[in-house]
């Protein structure tokens, strides 16, 4: 998946175009959301903006964190929801029991492979999450798009995009033995962000046109006009 999508040869578009494209979808894995994605993204961003007015990078991260879900769109191969949304977890080391549907991971051949079924598996203590291969999903895809298009978001912003679905880590504290110092610093921001990702989904409607100019200015600050996807 990474090799295929890493070519970034699907299309070229700006961040706001992508938001509008994503608007066609509702995430089946989200139990408490029956509104288009654009409203969830803006609710998350606006809630963060209210509490952290000076951290504009965090407002933008809130807005774009789920844009990798365009993988569901026909232009991007129309991947099934199970391959795009839901929790992510490391591969190449033992599956932690807090992983969602852990019992099914026992059917993965890696579960019985002595190279991969120990605490560290293919990794070493404190090797850094950047060196850990995660299960594929919308997090890693958007991270890849942002990084390859040379975003100027700080590393905490990229960390949030890349690991916000890594619930075994930020909800259960699993896999922390693989983290390095920078990961630990960034995790603090992911915990801040996560409160808004989970609980900002209210039924209060956002006036998209009213807030759009502010977010367009942030997109211009941290991203090129057009991105390769």
TrEMBL record:
Pathway: Polyol metabolism; myo-inositol degradation into D-glucuronate; D-glucuronate from myo-inositol: step 1/1. One of its GO terms (molecular function) is iron ion binding. GO terms for biological process: inositol catabolic process; L-ascorbic acid biosynthetic process. It catalyses: myo-inositol + O2 = D-glucuronate + H2O + H(+). Its EC number is 1.13.99.1. GO terms for cellular component: cytoplasm. Keywords: Ascorbate biosynthesis, Cytoplasm, Iron, Metal-binding, Oxidoreductase. Its cofactor is Fe cation. It is found in: Cytoplasm. InterPro entries: Inositol_oxygenase. Binds 2 iron ions per subunit. Fe cation binds at residues 40, 65-66, 138, 164, 197. Belongs to the myo-inositol oxygenase family. This is Inositol oxygenase. It comes from Brachypodium distachyon (Purple false brome). The gene is LOC100842424.
């Amino acid at each position: 998946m990474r090799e295929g999508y890493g070519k970034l040869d699907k299309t070229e578009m700006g961040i706001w175009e992508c938001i509008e494209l994503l608007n066609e979808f509702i995430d089946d894995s989200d139990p408490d959301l029956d509104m288009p994605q654009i409203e969830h993204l803006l609710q998350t961003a606006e809630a963060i903006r209210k509490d952290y007015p000076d951290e504009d990078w965090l407002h933008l991260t809130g807005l774009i964190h789920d844009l990798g879900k365009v993988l569901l769109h026909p232009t991007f191969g129309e991947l099934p929801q199970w391959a795009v949304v839901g929790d992510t977890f490391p591969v190449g080391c033992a599956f932690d029991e807090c992983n969602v549907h852990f019992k099914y991971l026992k059917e993965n051949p890696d579960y019985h492979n002595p190279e991969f079924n120990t605490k560290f598996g293919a990794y070493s203590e404190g090797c850094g999450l950047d060196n850990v291969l995660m299960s594929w999903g919308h997090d890693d895809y958007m991270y890849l798009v942002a990084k390859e298009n040379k975003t100027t978001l700080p590393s905490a912003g990229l960390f949030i995009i890349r690991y916000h679905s890594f619930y075994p880590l930020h909800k259960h504290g699993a896999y922390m033995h693989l983290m390095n110092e920078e990961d630990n610093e960034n995790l603090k921001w992911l915990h801040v962000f996560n409160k808004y990702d989970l609980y900002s989904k209210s039924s209060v409607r956002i006036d998209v046109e009213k807030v759009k100019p502010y977010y367009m200015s942030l997109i211009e600050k941290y991203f090129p006009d057009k991105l390769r996807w």
